TrEMBL record:
Location of the Pseudouridine synthase RsuA/RluA-like domain: 107-255
Chain residue ranges for the region called Disordered: 1-31
Catalyzed chemical reaction(s): a uridine in RNA = a pseudouridine in RNA
Segments passing through the bilayer: none
Matches recorded under InterPro entries: PsdUridine_synth_cat_dom_sf, PsdUridine_synth_RluA-like_CS, PsdUridine_synth_RsuA/RluA, RluA_PseudoU_synthase
Family matches, as PANTHER family: MITOCHONDRIAL RNA PSEUDOURIDINE SYNTHASE, PSEUDOURIDINE SYNTHASE RSUA_RLUA-LIKE DOMAIN-CONTAINING PROTEIN
The protein, known as: RNA pseudouridylate synthase
Pfam family, one: PseudoU_synth_2
Amino acid sequence: MPRSPLPPREGISATSLRAPGGKATHDKNHLPVPETIGAWLEDEFPEATDDARRSLLTTGDMRDEAGAPVVWGDPVVPGGFYFFHRPVPAEERIPFEISVVFEDEELLVVDKPHFLASTPNGRFVRECVVTRARTDFAQPDLVAIHRLDRVTAGLLILSKRPETRGRYQRLFQDRNVAKTYRALAPTPPAGMEFPLVKESRLVKPRGARQVLEVEGEPNAFSRIGLLGERTPTIGEYVLEPLTGRTHQLRVHMNSLGLPILGDPVYPVDLAPDPYDFSSPLQLLAASIGFDDPLTGRERFFESGLRLGESI
């Protein structure tokens, strides 16, 4: 997909939409290409009002791949990409702030608080690290190069420059990043020895929030150590994900009979109100290290956050 000719608006990226037709598309069951932009938008958004569709061209500032403005009667480019800003409603603010850990010409490293999403997702478009950082720091090209669950706190790395972003993203894709987490969970039963490596096969059913452990060849590996006791019943653990499956550390700790404190999904999916901040998940992305793909120098970042200060 070509890069959007539209800069983010209020920190929110433009939406891309591909027209039917063209060599590389499986275009909506091979429907014929509409003659005009207006006819295409009527097909694409049949439940929208005519005013709402036309607003994509005006308020939404629709552009073609070359950045030229689009009008209602323009012919459709078969298989062409078009870009526009969707209307984004206001969102109740998540009352926690990001803090800067490190910044240079390439990267912005921040501490993400609990309950704030990393990237636009579902109901949280404005209230996420990427949107906030773009507006707060006036850096519209910021993009997160990895993910952190909304309920997990800690280090999140954002790329500043599209020209070098792919090289940093590949570090995570190729698992050339050393990540450690801290967690608070029940103290282990007598006889459980640490450190240990937990391995299993994880599968996330479509539409479900819980990730399941199933029979089969393991695809998720976690190294788990016990740092000590916070209280007679609460232990502090260091976790190293050797693979990057969704909810991997949370599932593995729960499988060991040591569910992370404050987990809203394991062992029971409580389906909490996302604006209930009373019980943060006691999981922290504590450190990240890698060899910089541009300079070859070692990079190492540590979170300034701490778990369970009141425990």
